[in-house]
Amino acid sequence: MRGESVAELWVVLQEYEGLPPEYNQEVLAEAQEVVEHYPAGRLQLCAVQLRAPLPDLTEKSLEENFRTIRPERLYVLEHRGLAQYTTEGYVAALSWLIREREPALIVTSATANGQDWVPRLAAQLGLPLVARCLSFRLEQEALLSLRALYGGRAYVQTRMRLPRLPALVTFVPGTRGIPPATHPPRGRPPEVITYRPPLGTETFSQRLRSLAVEAPAAEEVELEAAEKIVAGGRGLGREGFAELATFARLLGAAVGASRVATDRGWVEPERQIGATGKSVSPRLYIACGISGAAQHTSGIREAQTIVAINPDRNAPIFALADLGLLGDAREVLRRAAELLQEETVGT
Ligand SMILES: Cc1cc2nc3c(=O)[nH]c(=O)nc-3n(C[C@H](O)[C@H](O)[C@H](O)COP(=O)(O)OP(=O)(O)OC[C@H]3O[C@@H](n4cnc5c(N)ncnc54)[C@H](O)[C@@H]3O)c2cc1C
Q1: Measured in angstroms, how far is the CA atom of residue 309 from the centroid of ligand 1?
Q2: Beta carbons within 8 Å of 325's beta carbon, 6+ residues apart
Q3: Cα–Cα–Cα angle for 309, 312, 316, rounded to 5 degrees
Q4: Pair (52, 122) in one structural domain
Q5: What spacing in Å lies between the alpha carbon of 290 and ligand 1's midpoint?
Q6: What is the DSSP annotation of 162-182?
Q7: 148 lines ligand 1 (CB under 6 A)
Q8: Which numbered atom of ligand 1 lies nearest the CA of 292?
């Protein structure tokens, strides 16, 4: 890395309608570990925020962004054109800051936006990129990373030499789970440095215009982002998934599944949870007709409360569950949906 100077690792924060998504916390936690594995004092954790000019950052905003880990420094990139996410705006503003500060590594969550601007920035500046990492470490001249292949059926560890800096990394959301907030957060309050990058109106070409932001129906929410998940397995049967979807809609939960259910085509493959599916971290996870095989439960380790519905009292899922219901899942889901409907009508 550049001589004896202190290199910078940037976490680019992402926002959704003004609220910092939880993923920022887990990327900061992973980045903090990268700093700790690097020779002491030679790598600094910094965060980057892009936004429209606003009144001074309040304590509250700093608190919301850094509930667990505080970086050494927060770079705020302010420009009118950054009020809303645009590919061109992010690429132009970050290219400018990279030239100003020359960081060693830039990481962000592999959300839809993250997967949009990061490769474009890499292509424009000719920088190395490792996409969709499950973990990564920085060495003096190389980047080590763990990634999933073939839809998660295999893992590969790579070591990429870094002839050019900075390198770019996207981190799969939900991999680590959201670290619990600590009081006070680790580290001192960050030094805040605000930049106003000289971006002309031509940067915001209007080739892409945001017309509206519409939230998906709860059951269509990406599993990694879902706060509540109702998942079904073999014990639910194909027909049971219709009842599960009704219940999920009423509860405002996303639909998940075991591999048996996705392999049989009862629900789309993107809904599979587990070692070769998605890792999720909801507040509530309801497993219906799922036995609790290790390959499934490895994907729900970060779930806060687990409820299991299964007629077999020896099913391994009960060892993990906070609440277990012995019985037929379809019957329980039907009854629970009726109760929720009655409650909705009553209010
Ligand atoms: C390399 C590899 C990777 C894998 N990756 C994954 C993965 O990512 N995700 C995954 O899920 N699996 C994965 N698997 C498969 C995994 O090992 C299990 O086979 C699978 O999770 C079992 O799914 P299940 O719980 O739906 O079915 P089962 O294990 O057959 O369990 C069905 C359960 O339903 C209960 N049941 C029966 N009737 C009812 C009823 N009326 N109401 C409620 N419950 C009922 C039964 O008591 C039973 O406990 C993988 C396997 C391998 C080898």
Answers
A1: 13
A2: 307, 308, 309, 310, 332
A3: 80
A4: yes
A5: 5
A6: -SSS-EEEEE-TTSS-PPPP-
A7: no
A8: 25
User: Would the CB of 256 count as within 6 Å of ligand 1?
Assistant: no
Is 259 a pocket residue for ligand 1 (Cβ < 6 Å)? Answer: yes
Return the pLDDT at 188: 86
Neighbours of 248 (CB within 10 A): 26
Measured in angstroms, how far is the CA atom of residue 214 from the centroid of ligand 1? 34
Residue 13's identity, in one-letter code, is L
Structure confidence by residue, pLDDT tens digits, 255-270 = 999 999 999 999 999 9
Residue pair 69/32 in contact by the 8 Å Cβ criterion: yes
Question: Which residue's alpha carbon is nearest to atom 44 within ligand 1?
Answer: 289
Q: Which domain holds residue 152?
A: 7-203
Q: Are residues 20 and 159 in the same domain?
A: yes
Nearest ligand 1 atom to the CA of 290 is 25
Any domain includes 233: yes
Q: Are residues 89 and 223 in the same domain?
A: no
Q: Are residues 195 and 150 in the same domain?
A: yes
Domain finish residue from 134, 169, 203: 203
Contact 171, 30 (CB under 8 A): yes
Residue 309 CB–ligand 1 contact under 6 Å = yes
Task: Write out pLDDT tens, residues 152-203.
Answer: 667 899 999 988 789 999 998 878 877 777 877 877 889 999 999 998 877 7
Q: Give dist(CA 272, CA 267) in Å, integer.
A: 8
50 and 160, same domain (yes or no): yes
Residues 194 and 224 in one domain: no
325 Cα–ligand 1 center, Å: 17
Asked, for residue 1, whether it belongs to a domain, the answer is: no
Tell me: the pLDDT tens digits for 211-231? 777 777 766 778 988 889 999
Whether 284 is covered by a domain: the verdict is yes
- Ligand 1 centroid distance, CA of 56 (Å): 52
Give yes or no for residue 175 CB within 6 A of ligand 1.
Answer: no
What distance in angstroms lies between residue 132's CA and the mean position of ligand 1's atoms? 27
What is the value of pTM for the model shown? 0.67
The enclosing domain of 269 has a CATH number of 3.40.50.1220
Domain count for the chain, please give it. 2
Residues in the chain with pLDDT < 50? 2-3
